[in-house]
Amino acid sequence: MTTNLSECMNNVLKGTRNLPISSLVQATYYKVTAKFEEKGTQAQAMITSGLIYSNTIIQNLNKERAMSNSHEVVIHNRAHSIFTVKELVRPPSGRPVGTFKVDLDKRWCDCGEFQALHYPCSHVIAACSFIHRDYMMYVSSKYTLQCIFDVYKEEFPAIPLQSYWPEYNGIELCHNPAMRRDPKGRPQSTRIHTEMDQREKNTHPKRCGLCRNEGHSKNKCPYRPDAPNRN
Predict the structure, then answer these.
(1) 209: which of 25, 51, 138, 186 lies 20 to 30 Å off by Cα?
(2) How far is CA 215 from the centre of its chain?
(3) How far apart are CA 231 and CA 229, in angstroms?
(4) How far apart are CA 119 and CA 139, in angstroms?
């Protein structure tokens, strides 16, 4: 979950993170301001039109409901809360068909999607349809448009002209010249690396791409056809 968020921010700030510090902060501030205004306006307009959930969650639920039509359901208690749901058609993900336990009171399904995504999977929808219960009651409130609007309702104030800023008497920081990027050589990767990009150090010595011997590279291999010392 945290890695996906980091990759998202990589994409948003890719065009600004090579700027100087002051320009980087300013660009990030205005990008976030514009994004909050855009998303907040969209959520408010959808709430005004009478919608409760976002279009994304409705589309996902429609896909799960279509898959639930091919499930076979068995009830295991008189309270109608525990079920066995058997898949009769192979799911679109390509995994083999299976049989899953569903516990509506505990909001549990053996497939794991119900607990991870916090909205009904196809097995939960099949169980609810079997007892004529509205499966929307098991959709988390985090997917409501009101919750989305609460995230983006904050407004960022406009930055005044610098002459109106209060005088700063705090600690002054200086940049470290040793950390300046070397302009020479091949450009480095533009991605911000995370823990998933870390690789274990290779303890094996490098070998030549032609003769597979150690101590030289392919360009300096003595066994090349055009090598000067080759007999």
Answers:
(1) 186
(2) 43
(3) 6
(4) 4
Q: Rounded to an integer, what distance in angstroms lies between the CA atom of residue 168 and that of residue 112?
A: 53
CA 73 from centroid of its chain's CA atoms: 33
Structural contact between residues 208 and 216, judged by C-beta atoms closer than 8 angstroms: yes
Using CB atoms within 10 Å of the CB of residue 216, give its burial: 0 to 12 exposed, 13 to 18 middle, 19+ buried: middle
3-state class of 109 per DSSP?
strand
Beta-carbon contacts of 75 under 8 Å, excluding residues fewer than 6 positions away, are 82, 83, 130, 131
Express each pLDDT in 162-176 by its tens digit.
Answer: 899 898 899 988 888
- How far is CA 218 from its chain centroid? 41
What one-letter code names the amino acid at 60? N
Give the tens place of pLDDT for each residue, 45-64: 999 999 999 888 999 999 99
Q: What is the pTM of this model?
A: 0.62
Taking alpha carbons only, the member of 11, 67, 7, 6 closest to residue 35 is: 11
CB 194 within 8 A of CB 3: yes
